[in-house]
Design a protein that fits this description.
Helix content is 20%, strand content 28%. It contains eight helices and 16 strands.
Length: 328
C-alpha cells in the first residue's frame, strides 16, 4: 500500500493506493493524523486505512502533473519535523567519497574509507546486538522539506548544487517516546559536494540544504533490493543517468542498526516529533564531473516506490555581504 497527500479543491486529503487504483481516505487530512489514530488504536497504519473504507477515486499522476501533490507526510509545526541522514552506508559508496577526501599519501586511509570499513566489518550485527556507528548528519527541519515538483533552492553561499538519490525512512514518535516507522519514500538528499570536497569538516555545512521526498509513502518493509534510476534533465533532454540501488542487500549496515544509532539519543525520541531519515547512496552525478545548472530537473524513479520524484534546481543570487546580527 502507498499513501500520499494532495490538495483537493476545498481541502487537503490523504490518498491510499493499492495497485493502479487510488482513493481518498475518509476522515483524514494528514498522514500524521492517521498514524496517531493507528497508535491509539493499537494497529498498523495499513489497518487504520482499511478501517476507514474508500472515498472518492483520485488520478494521482494527474494530481502530480498539476502540482497538487504535497509531501507524503508533514508536521503542522515544521520545527518538529527533523531531516537527518547517514552516509557511507551503501556498497560502492566509498569510492566517490574517498576520491573527494583523498590525502597526499595514497597509502593513508581517508576518514571516509575508515568509516566505510567500519560499516563493512560491523554494520550488520546479529539480532539484538549493537553494530558500528555510521556517519550521521543533520539537514534541517520541516522548513527545509521540498514537496514533489517544488524547487530545490541552492543558497547564495553554496559552491555546488547536486542530487543524492536515496531511500528515506519516515518515523513518528509515539506518546511514550517510542519511534514508530510509518514507511519509506524516495528522497533527494540535495547537497553541496564542492564545499564538502574542500574540507571534510565542512560536511556539516554541505548538508544544510533543502531535501525533497515523495511523492508516495510505501508502507511495510523495505525490499532487500531496490533498483531504479537517477537522472538530470536540461531543457527537456537527459544529460546524465545512472542506476540507483538501495535496500539492505546493497548496504553495509542493517536498517535496524542505522535506526538505533539515530534514535539512541533521547532528544530524537520526543513525543509527537516527525523524523525523515535518509539512508545514503552510492550514485552521484558529481562523481562523473557533472555540474548542475539552474533550471535543471532532478528525477529519481524506482518502480517499487510508485510515482517518480522530480524537482527543478533554483539558485539564489550569490551572497556578497555577511549576515549581520542586531544587538538588543
Amino acid at each position: 500500500m502507498f499513501l500520499s497527500q494532495i490538495r483537493l479543491a476545498d481541502r487537503r486529503a490523504v490518498v491510499a493506493r493499492n495497485g493502479a487504483g487510488a482513493h481518498v481516505v475518509p476522515g483524514a487530512a494528514s498522514v500524521i493524523d492517521l498514524a496517531q489514530a493507528a497508535i491509539a488504536a493499537g494497529r498498523g497504519l495499513a489497518a487504520e486505512v482499511a478501517a476507514r473504507g474508500q472515498g472518492e477515486a483520485v488520478d494521482l499522476a494527474a494530481a502530480l502533473a498539476e502540482g497538487r501533490v504535497l509531501l507524503p507526510v508533514d508536521h503542522p509545526d515544521p520545527c518538529h519535523m527533523h531531516l537527518t541522514g547517514t552516509g557511507l552506508t551503501h556498497l560502492g559508496s566509498a569510492a566517490t567519497r574517498n576520491a573527494m577526501h583523498a590525502k597526499a599519501d595514497p597509502e593513508t586511509l581517508t576518514d571516509s574509507m575508515k568509516m566505510f570499513r567500519m560499516g563493512l566489518e560491523g554494520g550488520k550485527p546479529r539480532p539484538g546486538a549493537i553494530g558500528a556507528q555510521p556517519e550521521w548528519f543533520y539537514k534541517g527541519n520541516g522548513h527545509a522539506a521540498a514537496a514533489p515538483g517544488a524547487p530545490l533552492v541552492s543558497p547564495g553561499c553554496a559552491l555546488d548544487a547536486g542530487e543524492e538519490p536515496e531511500v528515506a525512512g519516515i518515523y513518528l514518535i509515539g506518546p511514550y517516546g517510542t519511534p514508530f516507522r510509518l514507511g519509506f519514500t524516495l528522497g533527494n538528499e540535495f547537497s553541496d559536494h564542492v564545499t564538502e570536497r574542500g574540507n571534510y569538516l565542512w560536511l556539516a555545512h554541505s548538508k544544510l540544504r533543502p531535501a525533497a521526498f515523495g511523492p508516495e509513502l510505501l508502507l511495510g518493509d523495505l525490499p532487500q533490493h531496490v533498483e531504479g534510476a537517477s537522472r538530470i534533465r536540461r531543457d527537456g533532454a537527459v544529460i546524465w543517468e545512472k542506476p540507483f540501488l538501495s535496500g539492505e542487500g546493497n548496504m553495509s549496515h542493517t536498517l535496524a542498526n542505522l535506526e538505533h544509532h539515530h534514535f539512541k539519543y533521547p532528544i530524537f525520541r520526543q513525543p509527537g516529533d516527525l523524523h525523515v531519515h535518509f539512508f545514503g547512496t552510492a550514485t552521484l552525478s558529481f562523481a562523473d564531473g557533472i555540474a548542475c545548472h539552474p533550471g535543471d530537473e532532478f528525477e529519481i524513479e524506482v518502480p517499487a516506490f510508485g510515482l517518480p520524484l522530480r524537482n527543478p534546481l533554483v539558485q539564489e543570487p550569490p551572497q556578497t555581504a555577511p549576515v549581520t546580527v542586531q544587538p538588543l
